[in-house]
Amino acid sequence: MSGPSHDNHFFDTFMLVLGILVLIAFGIYFGASAIASRTQETHVLSDPMLQAKVVDRIQPVGKVAVSGEDNSAVAETVAAPAELKEMPGDQVYGTVCVACHGAGVAGAPKFGDKAAWATRIAQGADTLHKHALEGYQGKAGVMPAKGGLNTVTDASIIAAVDYMVSKSK
Ligand code: HEC
After folding, report:
1. Which is nearest to 99 in space by CA: 136, 134, 133, 146?
2. Which of 10, 32, 139, 140 has the fewest CB atoms lying closer than 10 Å?
3. Residue 86: how many CB atoms within 10 A of its CB?
């Protein structure tokens, strides 16, 4: 098995294999671009975050205020004060109150100490809430307003007082 016919046979097979490989390569190329055009591009272009960034990037560098005109569009936008967070009472306690009330340091009535809390509870819940929210100077020491946690709502502090009280009577 040698000579021109053998070479021809080899050549035919070789070209056939090569042809199939080229077809597969084209298939992968067009298949991939078909999938990409349906997913990637449209998805990215319709992404609101991307759109917002584009709008942001093409903003003019400066705006001109004209006297006598409505200049509300160029008014400085002042950052709104951060929203106060709503936090469950036990979590507020664990975040700040525990620092003093956990071990009863600096004159703070200790968490769970029934005797220490009895006279305070006798003042009524409203007084306890007020003292925790506004802070106060007592005979034993200083209770700071909101225990120093100014990022949570009043309701969260009140919940922390109620939590401490419920565990201390
Ligand atoms: C820096 C220490 C400290 C932290 C933090 C602290 N307290 Fe106090 N707290 C005190 C002291 C001291 C007193 C007692 C003051 C006194 O009666 O002389 C007190 C008293 C209180 C009382 C009793 C008030 C009264 O009228 O008898 C309540 C209720 C209270 N704290 C709630 C809280 C809550 C709720 C938190 C957390 C949000 C908190 N405290 C965090 C130090 C602290």
Report:
1. 146
2. 139
3. 10
pLDDT tens per residue across span 88-138: 999 999 999 999 999 998 899 999 999 999 999 999 999 999 999 999 999
Residues of the chain with CATH 1.10.760.10: 89-166
The answer to whether 136 touches 80, Cβ cutoff 8 Å, is: no
Q: Which of 96, 100, 157, 164 to mutate to test the pocket of ligand 1 (most atoms within 8 A of CB)?
A: 100
Which residues are registered as beta bridge partners of 152?
85
Does ligand 1 lie within 6 Å of residue 151's CB atom? no
CATH architecture of 89-166: Orthogonal Bundle (1.10)
What 3-state class would DSSP assign to 118?
Answer: helix
CA of 83 to the centre of ligand 1 (A): 24
| Whole-angstrom distance, CA of residue 155 vs CA of residue 42 | 46
Quote the ligand 1 centre to 135 CA distance (angstroms). 8
